[in-house]
């Protein structure tokens, strides 16, 4: 495969590439090269042969053709947030779209056209000027391209569904360097595939989304409980989601509070359970009544629930894990939040070190109502997603310690589930990635593999949860 063949910088025509690109072209000798090659997860320290900072779709097309002509691997980066470090490569061409951040709202149709380098925060800020939103993730700094292509779970998932469920059209640069339009009518097979199938089929340069009315104020959920209440919290949250409450989306996080400037002294060093999310109703009194059961599970250590600006809500977790710290993690869907799974989660999190954390994302609602065959995102019937992560912080924890905890936790949960299926935007460093990818796409995998054979038979776009063209 072309994706595995590397050549040295000396063999490349630097002048030729620079003359064809309107953006910056960075080779290892450039001053900015080391800074621009970094990704969010400090575990990865790869050195591309060249970084091309694309300004438009023509730059992307030209770079893909150049890489093909030189038999270089191609990696694509937008937000660089994936824990598996997919936004880089060793010795190949790194196509950086982060300068392509234009967001245009069409108020008449309530649609939004977004360039692929935009972050979720760019989309939120622009759409909120008109009281609109596209469902994004739960932080503002995540890249919109990776989020959309992998599905896109955020605080509107139970109310409106996933980011990819709101995609109307995209422009994609294929492996041969051609740009095509993709929607329900044009290239509909590829349109199916890019709604959850990741970056396997080409490089998206723009997306057009259907927006939804929301904000500017929503009812925020921000609760902290003691770790001793974890079992009860998981049981109450399970029962709560089964009752409906589709206006409510939230995540449960279990972690040790670090010494940060804005954290009250009485919380520092405590292992806590936090609930973060929102109620999507404009009626604040109704929203307060709806989330009352979540506020009375036990005696909270902190309760900051109340009206909050929708834009601000999505910035609260931006600095949860600083850029550049080595991280190791995995995730797995829970078909059912049963008592056995709750016991496994509770036992694992009680053993977690100070730089390890677990998250339980409560699913269901609208995202589960869309048939699995309508988009590539096939795992819609799970009740929760469980994520386990560990950081290697000098003087506090090692990667070996964290890896051992993550692997043990994941292994115990996986034994209780029908498959290793997970949300591939949060899939970690798996021992058998192909097994996880196949399980996660389920019955959609063979259809996706056929689309891959049609649009990228040589697997040029392979730095992702890879769908093979076999």
TrEMBL record:
The keyword Flavoprotein applies. It comes from the Bacteria. GO terms for molecular function: FAD binding; oxidoreductase activity. Keywords: FAD, Flavoprotein, Oxidoreductase. Its cofactor is FAD. It holds the Pfam family BBE. Residues 44-214 form the FAD-binding PCMH-type domain. The keyword Protein transport does not apply. Belongs to the oxygen-dependent FAD-linked oxidoreductase family. PANTHER family: BINDING OXIDOREDUCTASE, PUTATIVE (AFU_ORTHOLOGUE AFUA_1G17690)-RELATED, FAD-BINDING PCMH-TYPE DOMAIN-CONTAINING PROTEIN. This is FAD/FMN-containing dehydrogenase.
């Amino acid at each position: 495969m072309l994706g595995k063949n590397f050549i040295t910088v000396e063999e490349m025509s630097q002048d030729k590439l620079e003359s064809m690109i309107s953006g910056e072209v960075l080779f290892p000798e450039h001053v900015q090269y080391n800074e621009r090659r970094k990704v969010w997860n400090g575990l990865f320290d790869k050195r591309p042969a060249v970084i091309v900072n694309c300004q438009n779709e023509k730059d992307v097309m030209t770079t893909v053709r150049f890489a093909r002509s030189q038999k270089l691997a191609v990696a694509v980066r937008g937000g660089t947030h994936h824990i598996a470090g997919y936004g880089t490569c060793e010795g190949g061409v790194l196509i950086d779209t982060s300068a392509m951040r234009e967001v245009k709202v069409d108020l008449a149709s309530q649609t939004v056209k977004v360039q692929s380098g935009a972050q979720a925060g760019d989309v939120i800020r622009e759409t909120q000027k008109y009281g609109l939103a596209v469902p994004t993730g739960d932080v503002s700094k995540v890249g919109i391209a990776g989020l959309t292509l992998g599905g896109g779970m955020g605080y509107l998932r139970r109310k409106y569904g996933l980011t990819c469920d709101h995609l109307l059209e995209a422009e994609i640069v294929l492996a041969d360097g051609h740009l095509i339009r993709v929607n329900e009518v044009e290239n509909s097979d590829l349109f199916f595939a890019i709604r959850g199938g990741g970056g396997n089929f080409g490089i998206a340069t723009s997306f057009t989304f259907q927006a939804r009315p929301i904000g500017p104020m929503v009812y925020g959920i921000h609760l902290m409980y003691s770790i001793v209440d974890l079992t009860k919290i998981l049981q109450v949250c399970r029962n709560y989601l089964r009752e409906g409450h589709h206006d409510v989306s939230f995540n449960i996080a279990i972690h040790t509070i670090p010494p940060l400037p804005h954290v009250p002294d009485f919380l520092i060093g405590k292992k806590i359970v936090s609930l973060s999310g929102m109620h999507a109703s404009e009626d604040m009194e109704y929203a307060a009544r709806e989330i009352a059961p979540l506020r009375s599970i036990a005696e909270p250590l902190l309760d900051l629930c109340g009206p909050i600006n929708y834009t601000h809500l999505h910035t609260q977790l931006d600095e949860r894990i600083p850029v550049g710290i080595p991280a190791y993690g995995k995730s797995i869907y829970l078909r059912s939040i049963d008592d056995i799974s709750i016991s496994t989660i509770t036992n694992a999190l009680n053993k977690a070190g100070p730089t390890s954390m677990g998250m339980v994302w409560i699913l269901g609602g609208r995202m589960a109502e869309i048939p699995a065959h309508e988009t590539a995102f096939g795992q819609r019937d799970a009740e929760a997603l469980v994520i386990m992560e560990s950081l290697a912080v000098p003087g506090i924890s090692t990667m070996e310690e964290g890896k051992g905890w993550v692997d043990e936790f994941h292994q115990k949960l996986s034994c209780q589930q029908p498959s290793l299926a997970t949300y591939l935007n949060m899939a970690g460093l798996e021992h058998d990635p192909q097994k996880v990818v196949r399980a996660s796409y389920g019955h959609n995998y063979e259809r996706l593999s056929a689309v891959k054979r049609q649009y990228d038979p040589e697997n040029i776009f392979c730095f992702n949860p890879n769908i093979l063209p076999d």
